[in-house]
Amino acid sequence: MPPAIGTARAIEKPHAVSEKEYIDISRACRILGVSWRPLREMAEAGCINLMEYRQGIRLKKVRYQSVVDYCDRLRAEFLIPDQRPPLSSTLFRHRDEDLLPFRLRDTISMEEALSALGYNSGTSVGKLIDLGCFWAYKLRARAPWRISAPSLSEYLDQVLKGIARPKVEPSSRF
Known about the structure:
2 domains; 7 helices; elongated
């Protein structure tokens, strides 16, 4: 029988893994919008932390803070401002959908961006992204761009009004 919570024995021998510190693979995949294979590649590259949850069983968990830190690194690397709502306490967490630089439901593909901009080359869109005209990021170096639909729409509105400017000065991107 496990020791009662708050007793000296319970404090001396805490659980090996805090349930709140780790999340299951499917939740990590939902947060990042990927399947198991890219998640495993990200873990192998050291981007996120996986651990074997129960020895002898091939059940793995993801360290939640490693997912949060990775999303924060993406935001910093691609110069996307933090749009998450503020937390009322440090004891709380952001909602899963708010962890990425922008929500997955606000994301469009390169093909959709090409169509909206009237381009037929991804290189041209990539140059606009590098100039900071609208927000976009890649989860990994070879991954496709994830483009913010509201940001692209705002950029297109500015182009139509003749006032389009990069969101970030080009020299600060490199």
